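User: My collaborator sent over this chain with a note saying "see what the structure looks like." That's all I know about it. Can you take a look?
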Amino acid sequence: MQRLLVKELELQETPDQKQEELATVRADLNILRKDPILTGMSPLYKDYKPERWWFEAPKFISTLILCGVATLVPAEGASQVFIAMTTSTAMIILFANYQPYVSTNDDILAQCCQIALTFTISVGLLNMASESFQVIACPQFFCCKRNISHYDTDRFF
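Assistant: Without extra context I'll predict from the sequence alone. Here is the result:
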């Protein structure tokens, strides 16, 4: 509501070319003043463009999957990380295609944060994969290494 009040003040100081936008802002303010429930729910949708008011739902579902479902799936760790990475990638696609925020800078920031999260998850998946494909060294090597360390290593090298 405060954002709309500020925008109304800004538009009042501009020339007549912005009168349509001023009328829209005033209509939105009247709707918010008449309906207290809508005013109370405004934190859910105030950051989004009016036609993207629904974007909080997929964002919430994504957070729920990343924080809850992916950790509760009765599968091995790599499968859980893969579910999280798939969800994060889907959110990148949503942010890129719909650009839901009022400010373009917020759209770019959301995409960058989601890309960073996806890369972090992929590094975790790569780490899990590299641990599972390690070659177990011969135990005799470790015995020899331990025995060599008791002797003077300068004469060997």
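A starting point for your reply to your collaborator: The mean pLDDT is 78.
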